[in-house]
Amino acid sequence: MSTYGGTDRSTGKRAWVYAQSVKGRFQKAHRWSGWALLAVLFVTPWLRIGGRPLVLIDLPGRRLYALGTVFTARDTIFILLMGLFGAFALFLFTSLYGRLWCGYACPQTVFLEELIRPLEKLWEGERGVRRARDAKPMSFDKLWRKVGKWASYTVLGTAGSLTLVSYFHPAGELWTGQAGVGAYSMVAVLAVGFILDYGWFREQFCNYLCPYARFQGALTDDESLVIAYDLKLGEPRQDKAARKTTPKEELGACIDCNKCVVVCPTGIDIRDGYQLECIGCARCVDACEGVMGKLNQPSLVNYTTIAETEGRKRRIVRPRTVAYGALLAALAAIFVGMMGSRHSLEVGINRVPGTLYQVDDDGWTRNTFLLEVTSHFTEGADRPLEVRVDGLPAGAELTLPPLKVGADQTVKVPLVVRVPPQADLPRTLPLEVTVTSGDDEVSVQATFKSGAEEALEG
Ligand code: SF4
Ligand code: SF4
Question: What Å distances lie between residue 47 and 331, 337, 378, CA to CA?
Answer without folding.
Answer: 28, 27, 16
